[in-house]
Amino acid sequence: MKKLLGTAIALALSTSAFASLDKRYQDTSGNLTADIPEAAKQVDPSTLIFAYTPVEDPSVYADVWGEFLTHLADKTGKKVRFFPVQNNAAQIEAMRAGRLHVAGFNTGSTPLAVNCAGFVPFTIMAGDDGSFGYEMEIITHPDSGINTIDDLRGKNVAFTSQTSNSGFKAPSAILGAEFGLTPDQDFNTAFSGAHDNSIIGVAHKDYDAAAIANSVLTRMLDREVVKQSDIKSVYTSETFPTTAYGVAHNLSEELQTKIKDAFFSFDWQGTKLQEEFTRNGESQFIPITYQEHWSVIRTIDTANQVSYSCS
């Protein structure tokens, strides 16, 4: 296992069960997320900082989220600024340090954000019928000679980062439990930093294969960043929850209420958000809870013997 870079938050392996909240937070309700602190410790910033989960080109998503952020500003009476993050660790550290107030954390990093940064997720994107989720796929290029999972032996396989569910944790558990393959023993590993990078790397034959979220692949194919003829899928997982959106736990209760209202009252019709995410069949924000909807992800973490230490 490689050490998580660029942050004071360390992802540690142990034989213990999934860790509880960091000692700086309290959970009196038992819902596994941090309580809003007493009034003296709540914050009410004049400018809200919003970050979307790391992608190859954050400027693209600053534009995609533009109309929503204007709506968020109208609903809260605050200035709102898009914060382009380069990796999951930096995003988590920013919220832990109080520099990030509203965010979308990817599936796998959500538990770390909850436990170490006081992130409180309350919504995800879903389709018109309320359905949501994505699958982890292991992809390769047509010239790799890889047709089955067993063909990964001796090959170069890209993961995204250690905090990513579909980019590392789920495929690690599945490759070990279902196929008896161990990273850096049965195949060589690399960390690309983002799903976009892994997908482009496979298409350009920099990697023999990669574990990715197929929702990202769908959007990249639709934008013609890569061609379908450059990509071949050899494995598809069960469905996982998508990016979790939520707030820093210590925002004032009134402000948290206004932020939630902004998500649930946003009209997607004709927006760039709709244009981008309708590629995945997503068209609305629906309520979720970390306790219920991230249960499968915590199970994967336990299977990988993952616990989190926050410092």
Automatic annotation (TrEMBL):
Keywords: Signal. Pfam families: Phosphonate-bd. SUPFAM superfamilies: Periplasmic binding protein-like II. It comes from the Bacteria. Residues 1-19 form the signal peptide. One of its GO terms (biological process) is transmembrane transport. Gene3D superfamilies: Periplasmic binding protein-like II. GO terms for cellular component: ATP-binding cassette (ABC) transporter complex. InterPro entries: PhnD. Belongs to the phosphate/phosphite/phosphonate binding protein family. This is Phosphonate ABC transporter phosphate-binding periplasmic component. It comes from Agarivorans albus MKT 106. The lineage of its organism: Bacteria, Pseudomonadati, Pseudomonadota, Gammaproteobacteria, Alteromonadales.
